[in-house]
Amino acid sequence: MSANLIAMLAEATWQTLYMVAVATVIGALCGLPVGTFLACSRKGELLSAPLVNKVLGIVVNATRSVPFIILVVAIIPFTRMVAGTSIGTTAAIVPLTIAAIPFIARLIENAIREVDSGLIEAARAMGATPLQIIAKVLIPEALPGITLGLTLAVVSLIGYSAMVGAVGGEGLGDLGIRYGYQRFMPDVMAMVVVILIVMVQLAQSIGEWIARKVDKRAPRNRGA
Amino acid sequence: MQRDSTTGAAIAFEGVGKSFTSKGRTVTALEGVDLAVAPGAITGIIGRSGAGKSTLLRMVNGLERPSAGRVTVGGRDVGTARGATLREIRRDVGMIFQHFNLLSSRTVLGNVALPLEIAGVPAAETARRAKDLVERVGLETLADRYPAELSGGQKQRVGIARALATGPKVLLSDEATSALDPETTQTVLRLLADINRDLGLTILMITHEMAVLRDIASHVAVIEGGRIVEEGATYDIFTRPAHPTTRSFLAGVTGVTLPQFIAARMQLDPPAGPSREVIRITFLGANATDPLLAEMSAALGLEVNILAGAIEEIGAQPFGNLLISVAAERGPEARHYLDTRGQRTEVLGYVG
Q: Three-state DSSP class for A89?
């Protein structure tokens, strides 16, 4: 394999990491409040607002039901508005983030709904405000679930990032399509696949390790 | 906290009712409940599951609102309080739970600190008070452990320390010992009694176990079908239960039962020929420990056969139950002797 090819693979790996990382961070920052609100605005919950909950739920479902490759193309005008261009790796972050937000929101909603309602009751009995309950009880208690959810989001976004070649985004997926497939270079394709597998494995292992660290629910040996 | 100017009670329920509407049907959980909880006392509400006791308890800190009547804590109306006013009342009312409801993500110390953080107490003072409380409940060696590493009794101690963190005047106990084994129950009850004595804390507890109330409550209310059917001093309720529900709760606790070989042969009317009368004697108050039977035996020249018996304590007062048999023809004489000495007797039947 030529030095040129190795440099290309290295750059593509970096581009994929860059797109996925930015999309995950922005997606989590937006998905956390949306997911928390989805969990807490259900009927009879802390911030009970069934109608708003329903509408938000429909918006989230609608975004999630558009296939990613369609979403990438459909929001090109929006991408141009945000990124200044609709072509390139940075521009590709926009559709990745738009896909990440509702996905992460649902994962966070599920993690928060898993929290024992007795804890909410105890916090209410202490005189906590709804915001205090969210910040001091719900999110800390849901953290193991949230961590695993974000891990799942990262793995999905690595997959999505392979499709952004359609709008000139680069990265491993794009390299695999243009060199491995269109130029008949099976060694490039094989390298791309191997790097993606390693990347997903690493993401999963790191995510699970963090989740174990923050999970205090199961008793563990604390050493002698 | 000031007390209710009209009743002097720490907690007062006045004509409290609660009904829910579910699937078009109205379900009445509570109806016409009047109850005054004396300040500094331990009061127990006993009832079966679904009797409404949990709803009643949760009205004291506004987790439930009455649909009729008034609930006051220290003279403040809880039912109509909203927002900041309600949160302020809640800081004066601690609560402990059957399943502890501790945060798994926080250590023992962190859990106890939570109500202080919520109340906006400065960090240094929060740390100091949480440490004191953890010591107060005897968990200083476990302060940095997480709830998953604790036993049930230890978790409930954390729950108690947490409930005391904001210095409440009232402590609500929602079946706090129901998930614990009998031995652990005793240690938790002792801790509650100590706290009641040392801090003058008013404790209102709900339970379905009469034994829990016998050990620490000074007052008892019995709830059935959303109404309070009987209430009074624990000693009176235990020794002179008036309502069938109360009696059935007591059956397992103070029930001294006849040995099977006698119960099987017992009949309600004296049979022909020689027979023995089976009598239940309830020893009350100061006389409970007197050697009355020996005295009676000597005074009347009567042969007394003891079938079963127990003496127990309710609060600090002794209370005994004894089943005896005497020759049927001497029965009235024996009962008269005991009745005139302040004991209660009851003929259970005759054995041929």
A: helix
